[in-house]
Backbone:
RNA sequence: GUGGGGGUGGCAGAGCUAGGUCAAAUGCGCUAGCUUGAGGGGCUAGUGCCUUAGGGCUUCGAGGGUUCAAAUCCCUUCCCCCACACCA
């Protein structure tokens, strides 16, 4: 199996099967390879890409899903006769690889053990990977090898790394265009920050890989003494209900100076470090809580005087260590008030009206729940409940935003207070505490001079929407998400202080971050094989303007300019972009934005396809679970085709799929079976197909026992059913019946009918990425059909079947397909090609689809099932005789009436008026009732002739299986009472 | 919280946009029989409940509705997953 992979991957590479030329311009006579290329380059182009990998680990089978999906599509398009470009490169931009190299250098045990135990890299090797570039080289080599071993039809000539100097020039050009369009802005921005490491922190920089979540809060400023107290709150709208301030009596507070405006503020000592990351504070002096409580503060909005009281629930490490008290709406505030015996003395002030509650919801809920004090753990529960209710259903009563919902008012008030200086915009890490790998507690820092790409620009959004509207999005339901994200996107920070990649042209001390340098790189692939051979300095803005935008002329530009322009114009726009669903929210939407910002409309992307993830035995793959299977190990064990098949066939595109050993083994055994069956049944030259058949002749061929076409249907049935051609026992008809001789023919034709039907359906399934359904049809169901065919026939002619099947499955299991394609030799039913990868996808022929034959086969199957279920029911395993009765004509007529009239009583009336039916009045009601059960789905009524014919064709099979004579009789011809149970399409069965 | 996607048989997972042929594809698992020196593998059948004649009954998160007919349409409700960014 592995041999098969190696053999064909070698041949594809040798003949350069996947290295297309731009345009139909190759004219020099040349090698076979050239010849192959020419065959496809005269055709329509198809350009597709999958997200390029970040080489900080070997790839696992999860990655394989996206690339396999892409490759199947690439191979499909190639077999539709298109010139297909599927390139690949490596994205090395950003900090994780840097961090990883550093940790290896520090002999970090965690990372070394991951390398050893999960990636299978010996310590001796990993110890050498302390340079980020070595890491990149090591893993990209691994990944490329894995992709080749999976048989991906990638044009590797165009490979590049996002830190290559030539690519840097391209990104510089990209940002120059964004800047010229006015989309680059500068400002400040909150980031998770480690005060020890003095750097921004992402999930990979934290202990336990936690993603720090930044949350906005409002720091309300309450004038106090010579400055102000800062209270950080989630609910600025309750400012109208503040009755007092809380401080922790045991905490130490600081008077600090804001170096920016020179004002004095009061906060707890414990939060100084964290707050200084956001505000330029310096310590003036320490003040005790006791001392601070001697004076009063002032409500910045209402101007009321507010006393300061002690409260133990105030955490000096959280927020600012100073809390504003709204006892009417905050259970903890109310509890603290009550605990201090101030309940009656301080007057509660209502801010919001909440249905189901009176004026003071906090007080009510505390009393209802019977919460004893501020240290009662259920106080938090009460708080959460009140907050949630008030935010959604509470209506403001106080202040200028009266009448608004709590949630809306909150936003408005926050904005207003920040604007007029009565509050500060503060940020918190909502999932705090998180510690960085440097050991510091991660806080929020306001980075100044941060550069942004302004995705909030309305005109830009409008263009992005327009592009989206013109695109094909798969799965279709994902479109809503793109729409939402476009409307939601604002400024996106596009630089970081460190990382691999490209320096930011407007400030070369900064690096462009990873999601910003990967939005239009697909354009670079079209010229990368040329650009990578050029000197970086040759790749000027002017050159790229010419190549990508067609601006100016090639005069004065490097000699490669025209060729580059031609490549780009030929391959662009991008026909299909592929990735896993997680990139919809950033990368894929950015891709749309950046394309519309830079390229003319006709170069906008045409399609995006996203897929779900791969689970391992039903569980998410993760390093901690150790259930990651590296793709190379999997290929080594199972072979590429089985992995390819399993990762795309387990579930629909949008859902996650499961990878498990039994599934893989099932695929392998079926593939082997198909290969062996082909060797056995497809080498024989087929008989010449009889031509010019009228439907009637065809019918006779299918059911040869029905001999005379001149006789009336009744006579025909009689002759067929009188026992002459039928019930002769096990050895019936040896040499006598034409049915016998034609059994192979019928089974083969039936199989072909099914095959052609699938071939007709296949293209749209490939186009729509119904890969699950498609792969089930092409392997599992076709396999089952073949089994049935082989059961029905002894020596079927299956050459046409295999000549069609092999190319149809080739995109999914290319190695098996090539091997079988080669083994088939010269093709007789489909167009030949040196590789199945370059063959034409077979078109199904509707004329070979024989619904009647298939229906007859279904009929036999149903009869067979009924017989065996009766046998089981009556606990008989050796019947002496089986008789089948085919329903009488009047029943067929009645069925037609039922289907027409739909209603029981109307149909009944019509039936009784019919001379042919009336004599059977006793049975009519019962039969009619049966039809009524599924009145909408009755469909056509099979003729008795059809049923008899089908039974005759299945007779031999049934007799073989049952080991007894089987006969078919018309209900009209039989005196057996059981015959009366027959219904059209459902023969009555008598077993004796 | 906001936005999106889901809840189907022991498991995975179709079907549900066009209601009926759906006790519900396909696969895995399980059971039995055959094959085999045993095991593995392969083949055949079965796998909601009841039933000695192909039938009946109850099922598709829960509750209600529309319809001759609902896994599929409508309403209510519960639960799960993903995203919310500066991170690849």
Residues:
């Amino acid at each position: 199996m592995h041999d098969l992979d190696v053999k064909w991957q070698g041949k594809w590479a040798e003949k350069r099967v996947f290295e297309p030329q731009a345009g139909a311009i190759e004219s020099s006579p040349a090698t076979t390879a050239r010849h192959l290329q020419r065959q496809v380059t005269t055709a329509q182009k198809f350009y597709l890409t999958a997200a390029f990998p970040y080489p900080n680990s070997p790839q696992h089978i999860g990655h394989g899903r996206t690339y396999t999906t892409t490759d199947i599509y690439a191979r499909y398009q190639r077999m539709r006769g298109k010139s297909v470009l599927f390139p690949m490169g490596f994205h090395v931009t950003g900090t994780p690889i840097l961090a990883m190299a550093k940790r290896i250098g520090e002999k970090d045990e965690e990372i070394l053990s991951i390398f050893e135990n999960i990636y299978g890299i010996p310590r001796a090797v990993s110890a050498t990977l302390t340079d980020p570039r070595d890491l990149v080289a090591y893993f990209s080599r691994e990944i490329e090898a894995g992709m080749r071993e999976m048989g991906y039809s990638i044009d590797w000539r165009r490979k590049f790394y996002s830190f290559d100097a030539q690519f840097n020039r391209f990104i510089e050009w990209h940002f120059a265009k964004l800047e010229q369009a006015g989309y680059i802005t500068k400002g400040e921005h909150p980031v998770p920050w480690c005060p020890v490491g003095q750097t921004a922190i992402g999930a990979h920089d934290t202990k336990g890989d936690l993603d720090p979540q930044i949350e906005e809060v409002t720091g309300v400023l309450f004038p106090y003494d010579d400055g102000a107290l800062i209270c950080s709150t989630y609910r600025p709208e309750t400012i109208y209900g503040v009755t007092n301030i809380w401080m922790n009596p045991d905490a130490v507070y600081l008077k600090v100076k804001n170096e920016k405006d020179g004002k004095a503020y009061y906060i707890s000592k414990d939060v100084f470090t964290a707050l200084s990351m956001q505000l330029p504070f310096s310590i003036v002096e320490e003040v005790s809580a006791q001392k601070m409580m001697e004076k009063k503060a002032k409500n910045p909005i209402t101007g009321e005087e507010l006393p300061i009281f002690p409260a133990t629930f105030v955490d000096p490490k959280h927020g600012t260590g100073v809390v504003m008290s709204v006892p009417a709406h905050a259970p903890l505030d109310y509890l603290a008030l009550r605990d201090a015996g101030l309940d009656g003395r301080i007057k509660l002030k209502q801010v919001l009206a909440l249905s189901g509650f009176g004026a003071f919801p906090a007080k009510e809920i505390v009393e209802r729940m019977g919460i004893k004090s501020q240290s009662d753990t259920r106080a938090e529960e009460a708080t959460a409940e009140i907050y949630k209710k008030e935010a959604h259903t509470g209506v403001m009563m106080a202040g200028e935003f009266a009448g608004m919902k709590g949630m809306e008012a909150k936003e408005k008030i926050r904005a207003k207070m920040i604007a007029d200086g009565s509050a500060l915009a503060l940020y918190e890490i909502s999932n705090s505490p998180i510690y960085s790998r440097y050991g510091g507690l991660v806080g929020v820092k306001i980075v100044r001079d941060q550069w942004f790409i302004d995705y909030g620009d309305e005109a830009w959004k409008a263009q992005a929407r327009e592009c989206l509207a013109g695109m094909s999005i798969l799965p279709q339901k994902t479109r809503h998400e793109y729409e939402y994200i476009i409307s939601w996107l604002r400024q996106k920070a596009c630089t970081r202080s460190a990382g691999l990649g490209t320096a930011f042209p407007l400030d070369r001390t900064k690096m462009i971050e990873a999601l910003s340098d990967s939005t239009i790189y697909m354009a670079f692939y079209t010229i990368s094989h040329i650009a990578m051979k050029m000197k970086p300095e040759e790749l000027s803005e002017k050159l790229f303007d010419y190549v990508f935008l067609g601006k100016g002329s090639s005069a004065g530009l490097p000699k490669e300019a025209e060729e580059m322009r031609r490549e780009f114009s030929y391959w662009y726009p991008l026909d299909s972009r592929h990735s896993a669903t997680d990139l919809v929210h950033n990368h894929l939407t950015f891709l749309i934005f950046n394309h519309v910002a830079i390229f003319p409309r006709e170069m906008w992307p045409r399609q995006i396809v996203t897929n779900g993830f791969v689970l391992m035995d039903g569980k998410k793959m993760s390093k901690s679970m150790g259930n990651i299977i590296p793709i190379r190990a999997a290929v080594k064990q199972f072979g590429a085709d089985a992995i390819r098949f399993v990762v795309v066939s387990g579930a629909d595109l949008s859902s996650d799929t499961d990878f498990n050993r039994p599934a893989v083994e099932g695929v392998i055994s079926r593939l082997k079976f198909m290969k062996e069956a082909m060797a056995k049944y497809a080498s024989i030259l087929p008989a010449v197909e009889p031509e010019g058949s009228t439907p009637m002749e065809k019918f006779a061929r299918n059911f040869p026992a029905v001999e005379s076409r001149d006789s009336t249907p009744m006579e025909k049935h009689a002759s067929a059913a009188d026992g002459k051609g039928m019930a002769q026992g096990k050895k019936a008809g040896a040499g006598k019946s034409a049915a016998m001789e034609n059994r192979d023919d019928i089974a083969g034709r039936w199989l072909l009918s099914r095959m052609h039907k699938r071939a007709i359906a296949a293209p749209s399934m490939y186009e729509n990425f119904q890969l699950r359904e498609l792969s089930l049809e092409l392997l599992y169901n076709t396999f089952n059909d073949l089994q049935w065919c082989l059961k029905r026939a002894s020596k079927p002619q299956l050459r046409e079947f295999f000549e069609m099947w092999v190319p149809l499955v080739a995109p999914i299991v290319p190695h098996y397909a090539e091997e079988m394609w080669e083994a088939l030799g010269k093709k007789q039913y489909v167009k030949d090609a040196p590789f199945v990868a370059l063959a034409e996808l077979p078109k199904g022929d509707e004329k070979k689809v024989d619904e009647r034959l298939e229906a007859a086969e279904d009929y036999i199957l149903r009869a067979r099932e009924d017989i065996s279920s009766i046998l089981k029911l009556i606990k008989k395993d050796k019947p002496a005789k089986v008789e089948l009765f085919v329903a009488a004509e009047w029943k067929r007529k009645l069925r037609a009436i039922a289907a027409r009239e739909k209603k029981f009583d109307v149909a009944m009336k019509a039936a009784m008026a019919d001379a042919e039916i009336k004599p059977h009045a006793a049975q009519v009601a019962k039969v009619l009732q049966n039809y009524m059960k599924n009145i909408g789905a009755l469909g056509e009524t099979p003729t008795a002739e059809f049923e008899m014919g089908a039974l005759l064709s299945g007779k031999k099979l049934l007799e073989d299986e049952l080991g007894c004579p089987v006969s078919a009789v018309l209900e009209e011809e039989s005196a057996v009472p059981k015959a009366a149970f027959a219904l059209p399409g459902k023969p009555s069965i008598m077993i004796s």
